[in-house]
Write a structure and sequence with these properties.
Glutaredoxin; about 45% helix; 4 helices; alpha+beta; globular; about 20% strand
C-alpha cells in the first residue's frame, strides 16, 4: 500500500486540487496534516520539505513537492509508478 502524506490548509485551492488528482488515480487513503491547526506540524513540514508553502506531498516518504510538481509527474506518466499503479 502506498503511503501518502499531504500537508495542507483547509483554505488552499492547490491542496484541494492535489487531493482530487490523487483521488482520480484511485488513492483515497491520504494522511492529511492541517498545518493551520498546529505550529508543530508547520515546523515539521518545513523541516521535511525545506518549503513553507502548501501543499507539500510525500509519497512513501519521498518528497514530491507541491501541486505543480504532482501535476508534472502525472503529465509525464511518472506518477502512476510512484503510486504503485500501472501506467
Amino acid at each position: 500500500m502506498t503511503d501518502i502524506t499531504l500537508y495542507h490548509t483547509s483554505t488552499c485551492p492547490y491542496c484541494v486540487q492535489a487531493e482530487r488528482l490523487l483521488s482520480r488515480k484511485g488513492i483515497t487513503a491520504i494522511n492529511k496534516l492541517n498545518i493551520a491547526q498546529s505550529e508543530a506540524l508547520r515546523d515539521e513540514m518545513i523541516t521535511r520539505s525545506g518549503r513553507r508553502t502548501v501543499p507539500q506531498i510525500f509519497i512513501n516518504g519521498q518528497h514530491i513537492g507541491g501541486f505543480d510538481d504532482l501535476a508534472r509527474l502525472e503529465q509525464s506518466g511518472d506518477l502512476a509508478p510512484l503510486l504503485g499503479l500501472k501506467p
